[in-house]
Write a structure and sequence with these properties.
Elements lengths: L1 H10 L12 H10 L3 H10 L8 H31 L4 E3 L1 H8 L12 E4 L5 H10 L3 E5 L5 E5 L4 E5 L10 H5 L2 E2 L7 E3 L2 H14 L6 H11 L7 H11 L2 H14 L4 H7 L5 H14 L11 H9 L3
Parallel strand pairs: 1-7, 2-5
Antiparallel strand pairs: 1-2, 3-4, 4-5, 6-7
């Protein structure tokens, strides 16, 4: 439990005054591989939590913090050119949406892969505008469900739905809200759609996703007013995300027990076979110290939770 307790302490936005006893070498590896090193470093450098922590451990995390600060600022400023040039609505997803909305500071979360949602009929005018500011098409996913753009420095992908390969999703655009700081036509998802989009991305990884994505879920579950459970469950059922949603909510409640009640309120009902399959995935994904998995484990987990 000491590793989980240390992770909770360092992933909290209001950390405790002391770091629980823990193997610091393992903790550093877990924090780095799960996208939590920047947030942990900030706490260690600015809060009482860092008192007595060896300098070598703090310096390792501080270097990662500084790298994320520089990378995030550079990528956001570069991407903003394409977003501001867009003549069509664009919904920001994934880490870009999360760090701008759910986190107190841009440096607290790595952006990861940048994903944007663009309606299918708007793809051509978006691509033309992106080309005008230096971004060119680099790759097209099978079936045309996603298109990757780059300018030799920054790369992003556009898609039509909640996650890569998801079907077109009008509700995603209808319920989104403006983010004028990124561009006049830029939107962010509603809280409910952000939850489902995050779960969709986790499902692509068989729920063996970085812990920072579960911090995203934690913060969405803490929003006031609470998320609309009827909408979340019905949308999950309509998009095939019910299994993934159930598993992701079980995992966020496991990693961050303070979210358990909110997670239960959103968790969908599953059949007995579905529940057994999801529970097996949750058990596999619940140990934060398990940094590697047996060959084929992630593929099997994806089959259990990814919409078919």
């Amino acid at each position: 439990m000491s590793l989980s307790e240390a992770i909770r302490a360092l992933a909290a936005f209001e950390p405790p005054s002391e770091l629980p006893p823990v193997d610091l070498a393992l903790l550093a590896e877990v924090l780095e591989s799960n996208g939590l090193a920047p947030l942990a470093s900030y706490h260690l450098e600015t809060c009482a939590l860092g008192a007595g922590v060896p300098a070598q451990f703090r310096e390792k995390l501080l270097a990662l913090y500084q790298g994320v600060v520089n990378d995030n600022v550079y990528r956001v400023m570069t991407l903003r050119g394409a977003l501001r040039a867009s003549p069509v609505p664009v919904v920001v997803l994934s880490g870009l949406a999360a760090v701008d909305w759910l986190y107190p500071h841009l440096a607290f979360r790595p952006l990861g892969d940048i994903r944007l949602a663009v309606r299918g009929e708007d793809g051509a005018p978006f691509a033309e505008a992106a080309k005008g500011v230096g971004f060119k098409v680099e790759a097209v996913a099978g079936g045309g469900t996603g298109v990757a753009f780059g300018d030799d420095r920054v790369r992003f992908t556009i898609q039509e739905g909640l996650w890569a390969g998801a079907p077109p999703d009008p509700s995603l655009f209808e319920r989104a809200t403006p983010v004028p700081v990124l561009g006049a036509r830029v939107l962010r998802p509603s809280p409910e759609d952000m939850l489902l989009a995050t779960v969709g991305e986790q499902a692509e990884q068989g729920l063996l996703a970085p812990l920072v994505t579960y911090v995203d879920l934690r913060e969405l579950l803490r929003l006031d007013p609470p998320l609309n459970s009827l909408y979340v469950k019905s949308r999950a059922a309509a998009t095939g995300l019910s299994r993934a949603l159930s598993g992701a909510l079980s995992l966020v409640a496991h990693h961050f027990p303070e979210t358990a009640e909110a997670a239960r309120a959103l968790s969908p009902d599953l059949s007995a076979p579905e529940r057994a399959a999801v529970d097996a995935v949750v058990r596999s994904a619940s140990d934060p110290g398990r940094l590697t998995h047996l060959r084929g484990a992630q593929a099997a987990a994806r089959l259990a939770v990814l919409p078919r």
